[in-house]
Amino acid sequence: MNFLSLFVLIPVLMMTGLWLARNVQQVRMVMVTGASALLALAVVLVTLYLSERAGGATEQMLFTASHVWYAPLNIHYAVGVDGISVAMLMLSAIIVFTGVFASWKMQTMPKEYFLWFCLLSLGVFGFFISVDLFTMFMFYEVALIPMYLLIGVWGSGRKEYSAMKLTLMLMGGSAFILMGILGIYFGAGATTMNITEIAQTHIPVEMQRVFFPLTFIGFGVLGALFPFHTWSPDGHASAPTAVSMLHAGVLMKLGGYGCFRIAMYLMPDAAREQAWIFLLLTAIGVVYGAFSACVQKDLKYINAYSSVSHCSLVLFALLMMTRTSSTGAILQMLSHGLMTALFFALIGMIYGRTHTRDIREMSGLMKVMPFLSVCYVIAGLANLGLPGLSGFVAEMTIFVGSFAVNDVFHRTLTIIATTSIVITAVYILRLIGKVLYGNVENAEHLKLTDATWDEKLTLICLIVAIAGLGLMPWGVSNMISESVLPMIASLNF
């Protein structure tokens, strides 16, 4: 069995273990064991990948394997990774590991909850290791389907409405993706669905012009592309804590990854022709998301609209089609994944104590829960791009790479997008000042307790990852930059 297939096998074994579990303690043991194994596997993969590259391996994809699945349509179970995939797998493993501890006290049907959580994880890992279009699409669907039940059953607020809205919009995007994949397959000569092999062919420009926007919008729906982002704030606000972490931290990254790996890489002619349309939409999304976060009163909605802004910045950077901006886009996917997971974890912990997410009903929390408050300050500073944390590295790489495109249109849009830095600083600093500092106005809040051991473990893991990426970005950046190069070369050919 291929080494990469362990990323799919472990979640399957976890679901089997959960099915056999008889009490909450056994459920927790299964989840901790499986999540730890996934994290260890991701660390091993990073080490092996860097070792292979240092040893002179020049193939675009490493650790490849392919087995015929359905011969009439040339569908293979084909796997392989490059630096981008490795980075996304590491991110996914970290979020799954911390998400388990964020759900440690789950009381409502914990066994069933974690079963769906594992299925969602299986889809995410399978998507990032796949190099066959159909296999990738299948894992994409596996990752989306559990969201309906995880929000509709275990969520809060308008959970049924939010779950249905999310499902309908993402399934609509999936329909676009399927049409795009079929267009790519038949346009490439209908002999393979392997991404690297299709990239060596030339799909007729007329077909690219039709199927590129379908594929880009299809993945863009999950990547919070304006104006198809409206499912995101409602879905995040209603989802349970760990689901919000996995959803915003990893699942939304499938959108940006798919836009780059499939839509832009396989249809470069149409990408060059139509990029200006999507650049306008993403620039609007960057600023709109930041402004929308400024006027929200609910902690989850603030973070959800912040995610719209940051995910739009990912697509914006990819569409600039420079090596530096694309490297920055992947770094932003990593940075945002970690930051937003930290935010949602903290929001869940604060809500569990105060029973409110309305910032108008909170103040002075630094006095009663100092550990959680300090972690929230760190998350906020990372979000607004403080040097030394991951947000600064990612955003500066994006803006430097984007401004390098030497024409008025691209530079004007870059300047507009940079205004999001100022807007983000406004709502983050105002939020921290209102919620954490000042006097405790609600007497009941004086009785609140600080973080427990499982919560501290979750938060410390995420903060260490954010600080590590911010202080030592060169290893990850070089790994990503090498893998970005062949895709950028095809776009600028």
Please outline the helices and strands.
Blueprint: H1 6-20, H2 24-54, E1 62-70, E2 75-81, H3 83-102, H4 110-129, H5 133-154, H6 159-187, H7 195-198, H8 205-222, H9 231-238, H10 241-251, H11 253-266, H12 268-294, H13 299-320, H14 323-354, H15 365-368, H16 370-383, H17 390-403, H18 408-436, H19 453-471, H20 474-491
List keywords for this structure.
single chain, 493 residues, mainly alpha, two-stranded antiparallel sheet
Report on the structure:
The protein has one domain. The longest helix has about 30 residues. The protein is built from 20 helices and 2 strands. It starts with 5 loop residues before the first helix and ends with a helix. The radius of gyration is 21 Å and the shape is globular. With about 500 residues, it is mainly α. β1 and β2 form a beta hairpin.
**Uncertain regions spanning at least 5 consecutive residues:** none
How many individual domains?
A: 1
Mean pLDDT, as a whole number?
87
Strand content: under 5%
Instruction: From the alpha carbons, calculate the radius of gyration and give it in angstroms.
Output: 21 Å
Overall form = globular
For the largest sheet, list the strands in their spatial order: 1-2
Helix content: over 70%
Number of helical elements: 20
Largest sheet: 2 strands, antiparallel
Q: How do the helices and strands follow one another from N- to C-terminus?
A: HHEEHHHHHHHHHHHHHHHHHH
Number of strands: 2
Seen as an oligomer or otherwise, the chain set is single chain
Q: Which structural class is indicated by helix and strand composition?
A: mainly alpha
Cα distance spanning the termini: 37 Å
